[in-house]
Amino acid sequence: MQTLMGRIFITGSADGLGSMAASLLVSEGHLVVLHARNAERGREALSKVPGAEKVLIADLSSIEETKKLATDVNSTGGFDAVIHNAGVYNKMSGPTINKDFQRMMVSINTLAPYILTCQIHKPKRLIYLSSGMHSQGDPGLDILASITKARGIYQTYSDTKLHDLILSKVVARKWPTVYSNAVDPGWVPTKMGGPGAPDDFEKGFQTQAWLAVSNDVHAKVSGQYFYHQKQKKYLSDADDVKIQDRFLDLCERLTGIHFPIDDR
Questions:
Q1: Distance in angstroms (rounded) separating the CA atoms of residues 132 and 77
Q2: Would residue 128 show up in a list of annotated catalytic residues for this protein?
Q3: CA 87, CA 89: separation in Å to the nearest integer?
Q4: Going edge to edge, which strands form the sheet with 224-227?
Q5: Closest CA to 16 of 191, 183, 203
């Protein structure tokens, strides 16, 4: 794989796909900054990826901590790529979830990538971790319009993964100088996916790393949805500009942050 040496920031890289993508990138000679939700997890992250440059700490369920993380990221210097890998899905909670967990899932899976995209200095490449479950997401975006209305865990997760795909499409449309893409890592045996998940774990993290640094012409595209380094069909509603603009309006209402149009 041809690569360009770069500097990459990866959210949710204390374990799972984020940690493995970080290890792969470090092994190829790239500079990688990790992220973990607290200091203990940060130490774990560095122990798993000893060649990482540093780890930044923030609980992405908190809007204020996420905003501070963006400031901390910018204070370390520029990045060639940012991988929005962090996500939560507590399948052990069953088909119903309480409103607090639902709000946390939306904050981590949807609002954190939005905030960080808006406030981190624009990189050359942005990668958003979505899921095949996005196809069951609600293009009406009702969960963002009424975040306290309880929904099932599967619907909430599907909604947030559709949001990640929509965000990647927004960036591709509004920032033409940036390669912005979404990734379905597959149902892989991580802590989130569970030990019985059938997909290829290595291919699950290789695609996000490939999109972050590869000079392959197939990786230097924007507005696409990838599965195992190949473009894949996705819910076509994600391309609807009206849905994208409503998504931005709702995220701005929830975070107080306007999506920047001009180069920063």
A1: 34
A2: no
A3: 7
A4: 54-57, 31-36, 7-10, 81-84, 125-129, 179-183, 224-227, 230-231
A5: 191
Known catalytic residue: 161?
A: yes
Q: Are strands 224-227 and 230-231 parallel, antiparallel or unpaired?
A: antiparallel
In the set 67, 114, 128, 161, the catalytic residue is 161
Cα(195)–Cα(169) distance, integer angstroms: 32
End-to-end CA distance of the chain: 31
pLDDT in tens, the chain (264 residues): 445 579 999 999 998 899 999 999 999 999 999 999 999 999 999 999 999 999 999 999 999 999 999 999 999 999 999 999 999 986 544 445 677 888 999 999 999 999 999 999 999 999 999 999 999 999 999 999 998 887 888 999 999 999 999 999 999 999 999 999 999 997 544 444 444 444 555 677 899 999 999 999 999 999 999 999 999 999 999 999 999 999 999 999 999 999 998 654
Coil vs helix vs strand at 197: coil
Per the residue annotation, which of 89, 128, 157, 179 is the catalytic one?
157
In this structure, which amino acid lies at residue 82?
V
State the CB neighbour count (10 A cutoff) for residue 202.
Answer: 11
Please report the DSSP string for 36-85 in residue order: ESSHHHHHHHHHHSTT-SEEEE--TTSHHHHHHHHHHHHHT---SEEEE-
Q: Is 98 exposed, middle or buried (0-12, 13-18, 19+ CB in 10 A)?
A: exposed
* Whether the model pTM is above 0.85: yes
Look at residues 57, 59, 51, 56 and name the one whose alpha carbon lies nearest to residue 32.
Answer: 51
Of residues 70, 71, 145, 251, the one with CA closest to residue 259: 251
